[in-house]
Design goal:
Elements lengths: L9 E2 L1 H13 L3 E6 L12 H15 L2 H10 L8 H14 L8 H8 L5 H11 L8 H8 L7 E4 L5 H9 L5 E3 L17 E4 L22 H11 E6 L6 H8 L10 E5 L7 H9 L3 E5 L2 H12 L6 H27 L1 H8 L7 H26 L5 H13 L3 H14 L4 H13 L3 H14 L4 H13 L3 H14 L4 H13 L3 H14 L4 H13 L3 H13 L1
Parallel strand pairs: 1-8, 2-3, 2-6, 3-5, 4-5, 6-7, 7-8
Length: about 550
């Protein structure tokens, strides 16, 4: 490949990382232009691989003579003379090399003639059940780290970027699947990650015809032009095979304030003349890389060294999964206890047909769950979560020794779930084994230092050991994490009552009552303090309220 750019415009991945780090320190915003090369490690073929596959399928099913006839019928709809494509195809077969990415849309049209919609189903099948590869993890982190580099522009139809954001972050992306929504891609007030799909998503009648990809549709051009004044583009896995986005990037009127970084796979040599000319004209740089995953690994190592890696990903995903399972279990329990909740809360229309039908459905689910767990137990296939639920049932039945046993098996089966240690600690606490409880709470907090309940529970164990300073520290931390941590306020009130600081005690009991006006024990404790202060009328009012509750 002829070299058009100067040697000073060809840089290494290390130099790109230096530019990224220093740019971010100076509030420079980056965006990514992602092409099909980024999807290869996720099991989705590149455009070039599909070209080769489609030509093989055409030749096998139709034969070259019929393909020439189809091409003649479509000659007004193809971008390139088919003789040129055919010649390059013969060369590619002999050398087992790729065809030019510029042929993608012509070959697509030939392959799926006469009904191009079959091509959408073909692509949909290729992309189904694919998971984002390694490189999408650092990409997701960069899009959500709050520095303003929150935009991806992609010609791909797949959902790998949004899937990675759902997997590895708590941010929900704004996915612009259609040109009618293009204006949102350039909105500086949107802080969420933005995924701009310039050829639409796979479920939005994707633009996959030569005549559809000659120009950007709708408002894309008007929106993306100014974007490059705010964002420095980093191109990865994109070969410029479509004319639409490439025309925009090549346009002399499209100014790129800080140039453009175009990553290319060094093993395949320099990118084509068109790309080199663009990079030279925009005062940009070609970046030598070993592919998408290698590039994103370098970004991860440079910017997020504490978040990428097998163990780090495992911890994050396990934590998210455990939260989801625990929440699901909580909702399941709430549903199965609907009748008792109705009694307590006075739900109207109890006994109505719809409510009775609901209870029947709940009972079906409960029976299925019980049978399923029993079958797993008989086959020795109980999961860690099965043992955890078993332990919860023992705990609720005040069988604390059995609860400890079940939670211990859960921990042996899956040792990195904070909730398991917390719940075993609760059982130890009820057995007055406070030091063992504290040891388990320590482990739970080590795994998840953001859960207020773990600090509150450890504070309870320190309280029962008489270690009030440590108890106060834990309750304060619980309130810091969750200002509505009602029980922590009550317990602080009890400690200050013990220390005869009645004003502080009343302050904390009052805060607990404000948060939960039905907190009977807080009224009783505050009444005790009022009596110690000689305020009999206030004490009586609290006692009456407690009795009413």
């Amino acid at each position: 490949m002829e070299q058009i750019v100067g040697n000073h415009q060809i840089i290494s991945i290390k130099q790109l990382m230096k530019a990224l780090r220093e740019g971010r320190e100076n509030s420079e915003r980056f965006c990514f232009i992602i092409g099909s090369g980024a999807s290869v490690s996720s099991g989705i073929p590149t455009g070039a691989a599909l070209e080769y596959q489609w030509m093989e399928e055409l030749e096998k099913t139709c034969g070259m003579e019929e393909i020439r006839e189809i091409a003649k019928n479509l000659e007004n709809h193809l971008e390139y003379d088919f003789k040129r494509i055919e010649d390059d195809w013969e060369k590619a077969k002999k050398s087992e090399s790729s065809l030019s990415s510029e042929y993608y849309f012509d070959i697509y049209k030939l392959r799926f003639y006469p009904n191009h919609r079959n091509g959408y189903h073909y692509l949909e099948n290729i992309m189904s059940n694919k998971n984002p590869g390694f490189g999408y993890h650092p990409l997701a982190l960069m899009l959500t780290d709050g520095t303003g580099s929150n935009l991806v522009i992609t010609t791909n139809f797949d959902s790998l970027i949004e899937d990675a954001l759902f997997l590895y972050t708590d941010d929900k992306p704004l996915v612009i699947n259609h040109e009618l929504l293009a204006e949102y891609a350039g909105d500086p007030n949107i802080k969420r990650p933005i995924i701009a799909k310039v050829h639409r998503g796979i479920f939005f009648d994707p633009l996959n015809q030569p005549e559809e990809t000659n120009e950007l549709k709708g408002g894309w051009r008007d929106v993306l032009g100014p974007v490059f004044q705010s964002y420095t583009p980093i191109v990865i896995g994109y070969g410029g095979g479509d004319k639409s986005l490439m025309k925009l990037l090549e346009d002399a009127n499209i100014k790129m304030k800080n140039g453009i970084y175009w990553c290319y796979y060094e093993k395949h040599g320099l990118p084509n003349e068109k790309i080199q000319t663009l990079v030279k004209a925009k005062n940009g740089y070609l970046v030598r890389t070993a592919g998408f995953d290698a590039t994103m690994l370098a970004i991860g190592n440079a910017l997020f060294p504490d978040k990428i890696g097998v163990h780090e990903a495992e911890e994050y995903l396990n934590k998210r999964t455990s939260i989801q399972i625990a929440n699901y279990d909580k909702e399941y329990k709430r549903l199965t206890e609907y009748e008792s909740l109705s009694d307590k809360e006075g739900v109207e229309n109890r006994g109505s047909q719809s409510e009775n039908d609901f209870k029947v459905e709940i009972e079906k689910m409960r029976e299925r769950s019980d049978i399923s767990e029993k079958e797993r137990q008989e086959r020795n296939q109980m999961t860690a979560w099965d043992y955890w639920r078993q332990g919860k049932r023992y705990y609720e039945g005040q069988e604390y020794e059995k609860a400890v046993e079940s939670h211990s098996i859960a921990i042996q089966t899956q040792s990195n779930i904070a909730l398991f240690y917390n719940d075993r600690a609760c059982a130890y606490h009820c057995l007055a084994k406070y030091n063992k409880a504290i040891s388990d709470y320590d482990k739970a907090i080590g795994l998840d230092p953001s859960d207020a309940v773990f600090y509150e529970n450890r504070g309870n164990s320190y309280f029962d050991l008489g270690e009030y300073e440590k108890s106060i520290s834990d309750y304060d931390r619980a309130i810091e994490l969750d200002p509505k941590c009602t029980y922590a306020y009550k317990h602080l009130g009890v400690i200050w009552k013990k220390r005869a600081d009645f004003d502080k005690a009343i302050k904390f009991f009052t805060k607990a009552i404000e948060l939960d006006p039905k907190y009977k024990d807080a009224y009783i404790k505050r009444a005790e303090v009022y009596r110690l202060q000689g305020e009999a009328s206030k004490a009586m009012a609290d006692e009456e309220k407690a009795a009413e509750l």
